[in-house]
Amino acid sequence: MAREKLDGQAVAALLAGLENWALAADGRSIRRKFEFKNFSEAFAFMTRSALAAEKMDHHPDWSNVYKTVDVTLNTHDAGGLTALDFELAKKMDRFAGG
Ligand SMILES: C[C@H](O)[C@H](O)[C@H]1CNC2=NC(N)=NC(=O)C2=N1
User: Domains in the chain and their CATH numbers?
Assistant: First the structure.
């Protein structure tokens, strides 16, 4: 099931398939800092991500400062990482043009 907590081995395998994401300091989240050309591009990315997140009913923890968007993903309900986090990470990578 998509909302089942993944074990460390599964997390490591999925993380290996993502170039720019790293395990966060808490060990239960993945993190990527996106940098754009300007605020408009950063906000366009956030808009696309927000609509996708709403469709998935799976939402990022994030913050935006000018042209950077700092994203942390985890599944609150599961207390860790699930397949949904990796699905959303891939979508966000695509929205960022990578
Ligand atoms: C009721 C609703 O399905 C839940 O609260 C959803 C909403 N979005 C969510 N987003 C994230 N990242 N983790 C969750 O556990 C989660 N749960």
Answer: 8-95 (3.30.1360.20)
Using CA positions, which residue lies closest to atom 13 of ligand 1?
75
| Mean predicted confidence (pLDDT) in 41-69 | 98
Distance from Cα 37 to the centre of ligand 1, integer Å? 30
DSSP string over the chain: -TTSPPPHHHHHHHHHT-SS-EE-TTSS-EEEEEE-SSHHHHHHHHHHHHHHHHHHT---EEEEETTEEEEEE-BGGGTB--HHHHHHHHHHHHHTT-
37 pocket-lining for ligand 1 (C-beta < 6 Å): no
Query: Is the CB of 72 inside a 6 Å radius of any atom of ligand 1?
Result: no
Ligand 1 pocket check for 55: Cβ under 6 Å = no
The ipTM, to two decimals, is 0.96
